[in-house]
Structure prediction request, 1067 residues.
Amino acid sequence: MMAGHVAARLLTYIFFVTSILSLGQFYHLGLTTSSYIVARRFSLGHQRVKLPILKWSKHGVTTISLPDVRYAVGEVFALRCGDIHPHPGPRSTLKSSVNGTRTQANKCSITQDSRNRNHYLTVAHLNVRSMASRENFHLIEQIVVNYDIFTISETWLDPSVYDSDLNIPGYILIRQDRGPQKKGGGLIVYAKSKFKVSVLDTWSSVSEYNFQQLWLKVQCRKFRSFLLCTVYRPPDAPISFLEDLTKTVVESLLQGVTVVLLGDLNCDVLGNGPDGRALNDFCLRFNLAQMVKSPTRVTETSKSIIDVVLTTNESIISSCDVKVCAVSDHNLVCMSMKLKTPRSRYAYTTTRSYKHYDTNKFLSDLECVPFHMVEFFNDLDDRVYAFNCLFLEALNDHAPIKRIKIKSKPNPFISPEIKHLMNTRDTWHKSAIKSGDKLHWNAYRFFRQEVKREIRLAEMEHVRSELRNTNGNTNSIWKIINRVIPNNNSSSLMTVEDSYALANNFNEFYTNVGPTAAKKASALASEHGLIFHDDINQHLTSISDEDSAKFRFHSVTEEDVLKIIKNLPSNKAPGYDKVTARALKASSPVTVPIIANLINGSFSHNTFPNAWKMAEVIPIQKSGDYEDPANTRPVSLLPIVSKVCERSALSQFRDFLDSNGIIHHSQSGNRKLHSTETALLHYTDELLKNMDDKKISVIVLLDMSKAFDSIRHDLLINKLYKLGVSFAACSWFLSYLSQRMQVVKIEDSLSEPLPLKAGVPQGSILGPVLFTLYVNDLLQVPKRCRALGYVDDTKVFMALPSSQLPEAVTAVNQDLRDISSWCCAHSLLINPDKTKLIFVGVPQLTRSISTLPPVMLLGKEVKPSTVTKDLGVHIDCHLNYNEHIAKSVSTCTYMLRRVNRIKHLLDRKTLVFLMNAFIFSRLYYCSTVWSNTTKENIKKLQLIQNFACRIVLGLKKYDHITEGLKSLNWLNVNDRLLLNDLLMVHKCIHNLIPSYLTGKFTQRSKIHGRNTRGSGELDLPSCRLRTGQRSFAFRGAKLYNNLPNEIKQTFDIKKFKAKVRNYLLNL
Prediction:
């Protein structure tokens, strides 16, 4: 097999050489040497094949040496012919321009003249004819970094390629694809992050004949902004595209600023065709100057200017050049604008350097630190301060905090050999353009493919080498995966001019989010006359600590603290003090007694140390203007030792909550054995029961704005006391919540600290549980409807026959008013615009719904929907889950396409790991809720699994998939859904699940008390319709009864899963 593959590659190579020899033009090439060598390096898996060396003379082939084929890493030899330099590299050559003058033509990879780059803004455009492959992107990336703004046409991208796959460090990315159902086209603009760039959406468009225009407003420091438009017109688009362009150009001219329009219009202004004449007339009509004078596309038979630069202000263009570019069949168009650009600023980060860190030496030094001095202080804050000083002084000696310049090397795998090969390719390209010789064009195409091949192999070897060096460490593997498949939602803020001022603005915004929401809630209460009667304003100061209370904090042991420290995740970012989990774990033999003492001091003094209350907030950009804090998501980082204290408190507090059943039974958030799947399963089973009873369910899903940030501390503490928390513990919680400070970090600048006056700490351990307790009694407010909650997601619903739906809507409106009153009294802001309403029932009943009174919330009507998203699952009005399956298939397809682009970089083991993490976790999310969907939907999911299998095994489209699934030991989709259902039933039977699900299954022996053959089986609930049989209670019991007794008698969940899996595989 291997020998046949080698022979095929040899024949391909010999055919290429003989095709060149057959041209018979060697004598006319101006050869200056007596012999020439053509050699290339072929790839064969991970090995290389050294091919024959052909020596040529002026009179033809004199020698053909065929050495033995052996698997070794061969050298890359330059293809030398004619007057090509034996070591081609980045150098300038003379070429003739259109007007016959001699000009310098630099390669597109050479940087601009340093003097111009310091003062002028550089803009370039290139038609790349696809950025879909990673090899093309890496080649284009090498060019982009030499310009301030780089525009690209014909990207050929679709939504399966995320923006994060195309990011270039230091650049903003603006993108316009042709459309999900249209191939080809596409525009991208890269602009250095030092510029403020905004997209003009009202002008940007894709026409029905695929003419694209992307309008941007670019702001330079101390200069007026200018408008930049990137365009692309397909060759088959009618000349009437100029009508669309006319509309936007007229609007842009009214702005009174410089307009620059560049791109590929496929109108040859060098010739005298109708398209070129139409474009010239267009320029004359609007007084636009066309700056490109040299051919932008040169082939063996033609030259044309189809890539243009049009501007309203010719004097602002310092120069406009056309440069030979071997990446595409179009040349690079570049220009310098007489606009001073902001000085390039390096990005810095402050972090601990573990370059010279040695754990043993660190521990040895810690043992010499006088930590006993901590006990000399009575005040807890002083003791924590002393510990921090002593610990940080030792840590700084071994892992100092350094301000490090971020040096991004975008393509570390591009070696000098590959750069040498790129130089050879570029040299042949220039020779081909200059001479027009077919031999030179063939050589250029040959080396162009070689460059792509070598980049592909080099990246593969680089990534696989990194994977081998991880030694199976999951965190290290994820770092590599996130680099080759970056998260599209993890982009941090861009470089800004004054990061310190921006950080202060962001901090001001973040600290006012909660109070602003509370004020809006209060205003809504006044506007709608909402009054909620409760003793929520009771003051705790009047309560004595001698009152009987159920919960008090007790001391923790060193073993408890050590266990918490060992379980700290090592991949989390450190807090304000830059102490990492790695350092704390390493120091645990010495520091655990001191930390345990500090935690016990915190509990006994009812005080949470101030040093543990400082948070560092990192803004993560979501979309839109990155200088607008509303377009960001704040991530709060807390000191690592504070999390140890919080975890100790939570462990004790959760035991108290669980043992006393304090949290409402309909609240599924932040509770043991509870999950989104159990919450949805309980909810949808009740909806199916209502459908079986011929009822229609009216469901309202409430949306709260900034709920975590707007909690009132005084109300929360009073609620805790009512729940049985002692006055001393309440004082500790009040200390934990109050006097908190935070700073915002943007780039390497920290804002001034500001206090947080409301809300629970973001990123904390206790915060989610405290919020759950704050809204705990909200589920008791509705008196007519059922209420279910999952942290801040609350829904109310009611089921009645279709004839009584008006009464149901009236009852829902009354409960919504009561809920609104409760929320406003608790400073929680309900958003009516994002609140959803849906009616669920069998199709015959929902179609017959008559005109109903509107559902009102805070004076706004809530319009009914046919589908709504609840806890990640799309719930439709008939519970057929067609929309959910379609969304899952779409998401997984896009993700698989991303994986398919980089599959050659990863080995099979990593690909399987990737499929489980990225694909199957999404595909089977909450599968017990929707596994009763139609067979057609199951087939759609099976196609996704087949696609994943083909990627892992490298199978082709029409290869049989069954054996592939078996080789990977994967259950098919239908069997995997059965496995998940049976696991949930097993958990219900053995009380490993919330109580609202355990009561769904009852053994027959417990019903009739007789010992019969089927007494060990589960009882099947009676159902009137087939809809009722879709419920989990019915289908789960039926599936479980069909299992062999040996499997049903297995208690351990892992062993049960393994036995069921083997049982399904062998069916």
